[in-house]
């Protein structure tokens, strides 16, 4: 099962193609157009109304209430923290998947999924702020992750924005309840960062599309019931030749093969299409709209990730500090390392609060969400790496081994931290996006 | 919830930026740094005071504006951008402590009006090691030596931290001026054997320490955002291999990382300032994190700016070194990174 960030294992944006909403909103200084006032004798506004419309980082009362109710609900409904589920000797990979499905169902019945989707589609009709609070509280409580992260995180928004009435009715309810699990078929063996070079084809034949090609690194492929596929309906038009198609994985001509990851698990796999026939009704949007839909999805799912991330790291960091004490690792060198992690995590939290405040004001963050992505994923690597250093040889122990610490699966987290800077657009791709879309630097020379 | 500045706060930022651009352009700042004996222009200082800046966060009782840490951060960010020399932050901190203790309102009023100067004497040893004889203040007298006292040659009074709590000490003082690599902030060692008035306990001092951390971080933020802007402009125009150097991905990625540093510092600084002004319980960790991160980041960003300018970046003529030096000075003072890391550990209970 994924690291909880694996909610968005999407491919990549090509900077030139993604639409930005509010580049100006992220910065008080740099990005905002200089406001040059012309007053010759600028005066300090004496009697500044300091208390009104003040910069304010407190949650609004209705959001506090939402948070408290959610906390109470989690306390009453969570059997035990996720890490304890994982450590249960009786736990199997399949068993944990079923456990997550049941947990998802429970959350859905309590109205906590599809947070910002309209009620008519089974959502809660709340907003981005509630969604971010939900993610943070799940992280604080170490709640089990839901099973259908990619369906709810990525496809749901796509259907709400671009799907037909019929598609929403058909696909959203079982997506929310966990009856139908989705995976995301974007990346191909030859197309990852350069996603628009993808070659899987969809040829219209009567009322069907005929799919041929291969997808790879498909998270949940081995468990999913359905896949949403970016496929080429026109080989000559790089962006306009891509369409967004839904395909059942037991369709004749579709084969799924698990791939083994560096953790030893097979959370992702590869999906082959050989003359697989998919009804035309499973096309989302129009033919040739696939790239646009993929980009909308990407922008949409960039929630206030830093807040939940920093809650989760904060929890693990507490465990690490405790472990150091227990093991008598209290040298100045050890303490400095702990302190630096603490500082960086606190800064991540500040980034998260800032994004949350933008959401609360109804603003959508633009390409600067790349900053958040780089920040948490690069921090994850440093954190997990330092954790292993501070734990000594014990840090290398697998969960199943004698002497393994019961608090965090340190060895596995260390390995997982290598993934975050690759999926969802690698760190290098994020820097390209910042260079072009935020800093407006010239076309790069490679 | 709102991260953006309010209209009034934005007005404060803009008018401060304009004021500094017209009163303290970099050419003038350079000449002050290079030629002034005291390290600032007393006439300019009085202008700053008349504008209300010195009393920004002080209560109306002593002629102040009664604003908070967020407004202080706004002003200091602008001062960082303009690389303003002088004792502004030192005076604000010292006056805040004296005013909070109601120890000498008459003095604070003079300070707010720009007629007198008071700063804080903190360091008990020049190399930040432990000192054999820390300064004491038993029996109403302060005795010992303070090192790296900001603008000590110009002050009328000093706030002195001692083993017995902070005290207020009137001049004149016997000072030994120091020369550091940063011309914008002057320091001197001060030998003390003076009458002293108590200024509250560790809690008051801790509050001022947090304000110092946020204030210095805000200046660091200003320094590094200016350096990034300057560098962005430069890489668009400077040509090498028949293209602007900003087209090289090796530089683009590092510029993206500089932006990450600047913007993350911005989040941390304003959040910490907000925590202080709203009395949030996260304030100790937020302030320590802001300063530690800002110190690291500013050194990095200002250093990268020099690197990306090539040879001209290493010249006295270009302004970048002023920023680089300020950044290093601020990193080491107002709670060094080491001190902030300790504060963070304490706040987290590690
Ligand atoms: C754990 C995990 C789960 C995943 N889940 C899914 C999934 O569910 N569905 C899905 O579709 N995909 C998924 N992916 C795939 C992921 O999106 C791709 O791996 C990613 O987009 C990178 O593509 P690639 O693997 O082809 O690497 P490449 O694109 O070949 O990149 C290789 C290296 O080159 C660098 N690089 C590439 N282009 C540039 C450039 N322009 N400038 C500088 N450097 C560059 C990259 O940063 C990287 O370091 C997953 C990946 C992982 C690791």
Give me a quick take on this structure:
The complex is a heterodimer of chains A (446) and B (350). Chain A has 446 residues and is α+β, with helices and mostly antiparallel strands. In chain A, 42% of the residues lie in helices and 12% in strands.
Characteristics:
A: 446 residues, alpha+beta, Butyryl-Coa Dehydrogenase, subunit A, domain 1, Butyryl-CoA Dehydrogenase, subunit A, domain 3, four-stranded mixed β-sheet, 12 helices, B: 350 residues, Butyryl-CoA Dehydrogenase, subunit A, domain 2, three-stranded antiparallel β-sheet, 11 helices, 9 strands, binds flavin-adenine dinucleotide
Q: Mind explaining what this structure looks like?
A:
The complex is a heterodimer of chains A (446) and B (350). Chain A is an alpha+beta fold and 446 residues long. Chain A has 3 domains: 61-147, Butyryl-Coa Dehydrogenase, subunit A, domain 1 (Orthogonal Bundle), CATH 1.10.540.10; 182-297, Butyryl-CoA Dehydrogenase, subunit A, domain 2 (Beta Barrel), CATH 2.40.110; 303-438, Butyryl-CoA Dehydrogenase, subunit A, domain 3 (Up-down Bundle). In chain A, 42% of the residues lie in helices and 12% in strands. Chain A is built from 12 helices and 8 strands. Chain A has helices spanning 61-77, 82-87, 93-109, 128-141, 149-162, 165-177, 290-301, 305-326, 332-360, 369-391, 410-416, 427-438, and strands at 182-185, 201-205, 208-219, 226-232, 242-248, 254-258, 268-279, 283-284. In chain A, strands 1-4-5-8 form a 4-stranded mixed beta sheet. The two termini of chain A are 37 Å apart. Chain B is an alpha+beta fold. Chain B has 3 domains: 7-112, Butyryl-Coa Dehydrogenase, subunit A, domain 1, CATH 1.10.540; 118-200, Beta Barrel (Butyryl-CoA Dehydrogenase, subunit A, domain 2); 203-347, Up-down Bundle (Butyryl-CoA Dehydrogenase, subunit A, domain 3). Helices cover 54% and strands 12% of the residues of chain B. Chain B has a 4-stranded mixed beta sheet with strand order 1-3-4-7, with helices on one face. The two termini of chain B are 31 Å apart. At the A-B interface, helix 9, helix 10 and helix 12 of A face helix 1, helix 4, helix 7, strand 9 and helix 8 of B. Bound molecules: flavin-adenine dinucleotide. Flavin-adenine dinucleotide is lined by residues 9, 11-12, 183-187, 192-193, 217-219, 268, 419, 422-423, 426, 428-429, 432 of chain A.
């Amino acid at each position: 099962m994924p690291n909880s960030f694996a909610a968005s294992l999407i491919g990549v944006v090509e900077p030139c193609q993604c639409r930005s909403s509010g580049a100006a909103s992220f910065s008080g200084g740099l990005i905002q157009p200089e406001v040059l006032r012309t007053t010759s004798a600028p005066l300090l506004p004496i009697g500044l109304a300091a208390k009104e419309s003040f910069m304010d980082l407190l949650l609004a009362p209705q959001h506090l209430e939402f948070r408290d109710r959610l906390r109470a609900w989690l306390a009453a409904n969570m059997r035990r923290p996720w890490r304890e589920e994982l450590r249960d000797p009786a736990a199997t990979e399949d068993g944990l998947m079923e456990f997550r499905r049941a947990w998802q169902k429970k959350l859905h019945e309590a109205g906590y999924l599809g947070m910002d989707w309209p009620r008519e589609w089974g959502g809660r009709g709340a907003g981005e702020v509630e969604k971010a609070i939900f993610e943070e509280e799940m992280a604080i409580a170490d709640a089990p992750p839901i099973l259908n992260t990619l369906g709810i995180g990525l496809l749901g928004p796509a259907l709400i924005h671009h799907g037909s009435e019929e598609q929403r009715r058909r696909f959203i309810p079982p997506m929310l309840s966990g009856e139908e699990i989705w995976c995301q078929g974007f990346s191909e063996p030859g197309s990852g960062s350069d996603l628009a070079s993808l070659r899987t084809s969809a040829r219209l034949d009567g009322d069907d599309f005929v799919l041929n090609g291969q997808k790879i690194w498909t998270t949940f492929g081995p468990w999913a019931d359905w896949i949403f596929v970016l496929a080429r309906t026109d080989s000559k038009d790089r962006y306009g030749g891509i369409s967004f198609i839904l395909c059942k994985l037991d369709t004749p001509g579709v084969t799924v093969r698990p791939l083994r990851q560096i953790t030893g698990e097979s959370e992702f796999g590869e999906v082959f299409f050989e003359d697989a026939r998919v009804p035309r009704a499973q096309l989302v949007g129009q033919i040739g709209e696939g790239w646009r839909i993929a980009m909308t999805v990407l922008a949409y799912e960039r929630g206030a990730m830093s807040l939940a991330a920093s809650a989760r790291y904060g929890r693990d960091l507490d465990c690490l500090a405790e472990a150091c004490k227990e093991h008598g690792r209290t040298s100045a060198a050890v303490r400095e390392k702990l302190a630096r992690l603490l500082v960086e995590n606190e800064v991540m939290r500040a980034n998260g609060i800032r994004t949350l405040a933008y959401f609360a004001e109804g603003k959508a963050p633009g390409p600067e969400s790349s900053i958040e992505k780089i920040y948490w994923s690069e921090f994850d690597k440093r954190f997990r790496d330092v954790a292993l250093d501070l734990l000594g040889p014990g840090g290398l122990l697998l969960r199943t081994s004698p002497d393994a610490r019961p608090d965090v699966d340190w060895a596995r987290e260390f390995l997982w931290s290598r993934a975050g800077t690759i999926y969802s657009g690698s760190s290098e791709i994020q820097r390209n996006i910042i260079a072009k879309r935020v800093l407006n630097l010239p076309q790069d020379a490679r | 919830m709102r991260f953006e500045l309010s209209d009034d706060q934005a007005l404060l930022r803009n008018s401060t930026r304009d004021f500094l651009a017209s009163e303290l352009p970099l050419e003038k700042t350079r000449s002050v740094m290079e030629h002034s004996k005291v390290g600032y222009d007393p006439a300019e200082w009085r202008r700053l005071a008349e504008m209300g800046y010195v009393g920004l966060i002080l209560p109306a009782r002593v002629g102040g504006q009664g604003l908070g840490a967020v407004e202080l951060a706004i002003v200091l960010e602008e001062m960082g951008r303009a690389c303003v020399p002088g004792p502004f932050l030192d005076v604000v901190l010292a006056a805040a402590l004296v005013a909070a203790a109601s120890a000498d309102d008459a003095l604070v009023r003079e300070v707010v009006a720009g007629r007198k100067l008071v700063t804080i004497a903190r360091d008990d040893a020049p190399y930040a090691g432990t000192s054999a004889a820390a300064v004491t203040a038993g029996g109403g007298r302060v005795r010992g030596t303070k090192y790296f006292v900001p603008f000590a040659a110009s002050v009328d009074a000093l706030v002195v931290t001692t083993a017995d709590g902070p005290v207020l000490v009137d001049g004149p003082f016997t000072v030994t001026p120091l020369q550091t690599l940063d011309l914008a902030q002057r320091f001197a060692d001060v030998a003390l054997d003076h009458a002293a008035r108590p200024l509250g306990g560790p809690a008051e001092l801790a509050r001022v320490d947090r304000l110092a951390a946020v204030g210095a971080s805000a200046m660091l933020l200003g320094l590094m955002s200016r350096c990034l802007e300057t560098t962005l402009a430069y890489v668009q125009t400077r040509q090498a291999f028949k293209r602007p150097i900003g087209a090289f991905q090796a530089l683009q990625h590092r510029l993206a990382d500089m932006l990450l540093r600047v913007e993350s510092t911005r989040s941390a600084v304003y959040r910490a300032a907000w925590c202080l002004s709203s009395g949030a319980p996260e304030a100790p960790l937020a302030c320590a994190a802001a300063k530690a991160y800002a110190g690291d980041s500013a050194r990095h960003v200002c250093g990268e700016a020099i690197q990306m300018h090539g040879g001209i970046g290493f010249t006295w003529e270009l302004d970048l070194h002023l920023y680089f030096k300020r950044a290093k000075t601020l990193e080491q003072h107002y709670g060094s990174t080491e001190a902030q890391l300790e504060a963070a550990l304490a706040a987290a209970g590690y």
